[in-house]
Amino acid sequence: MRWATMIKILLIAVLLALLAASCKQQSSTTLPSLDMPAPQVLSVEMQGLIDGGNAYVGAKVQNSTPHPVLIAAATAAAEDQAKRCLQGHHDWDRRFRELQVELPGMTPAEICAESWYDQRNDSPAELGYEMFKCWHWSPGHWNVAKRQHTYWGGSMAKGQNGIWYSCIIVAD
């Protein structure tokens, strides 16, 4: 696992621990539901996917509730694609099984895309928009991107080849 991924996962864990500690100080009537993930700080890359999805007509996945487990899995998958300099659903069978254990009763799905080389310096929102544009050309990917899900997580990572790789994972 890359250092950046480990740092992001550690940051999410620290934020969740701080939130849990602050919730213990509140009355029991204001505690969040155990079924809902805690609020979190979103990465610039995930915010780019949100902004790109909001700008792309018909996209709704970005309106789903962010979930830390799915964010971590999507971040790891995007970084793996970037490390390989190859877009794809690498090790999806393993991730699928792990997510079913982490989120019992839910079924995960994954979509991936990559940017064009001349987009290597685009903003996260421009890259996010391009990812949704690519997903719209694939019926299987668009079926995930065009609807709101129970939970989602997403990220993008830049490969040494200058290409950006993205991954969104949802669960219903």
Name the features.
48% helix; 6 helices; alpha+beta; globular; 172 residues; Pathogenesis-related Protein p14a; single chain; four-stranded mixed β-sheet
Secondary structure category: alpha+beta
Q: What radius of gyration results from the CA coordinates?
A: 16 Å
Low-confidence stretches: 13-34
User: Can you name the CATH architecture?
Assistant: 3-Layer(aba) Sandwich
Describe this entry's structure for a reader.
The chain has 172 residues and is an alpha+beta fold. The protein has a single domain (41-171), classed as 3-Layer(aba) Sandwich (Pathogenesis-related Protein p14a), CATH 3.40.33.10. It contains six helices and four strands, in the order H-H-E-H-H-E-H-H-E-E. Strands 1-3-4-2 form a four-stranded mixed beta sheet, with helices on both faces. Helix 1 (3-25) runs antiparallel to helix 3 and helix 2 packs across helix 5. The longest helix is centred in the first third of the chain and has 23 residues, at 3-25.
Layout of strands and helices, then pairs:
Layout: H1 3-25, H2 44-55, E1 65-66, H3 68-84, H4 92-102, E2 108-114, H5 124-136, H6 139-145, E3 151-158, E4 164-171
